[in-house]
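Next comes a single protein record:
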Amino acid sequence: MCAERLSENIVICIDTSRSMFRTDYAPNRLHACTNALKKLINDRISEDEASSFAIINFSDKAEKIIDFTNFTSQLEEALDSSN
């Protein structure tokens, strides 16, 4: 039996505090995180085009970077602005 996947709205919260600039992951934690998120977004949208993502950065306060969308180019630009 094949279960049908429901489209989802997914919120990604990214820590952009100073600790994310440590270099225990090359070149730093934030860059490694955004690369992994790009892969997650691309994989998910290729599997289900109706799913969408919103991105929020937080450090000392939260800031919405991009509202829900399934346009991967916009999401990747938003992630790149986090670096």
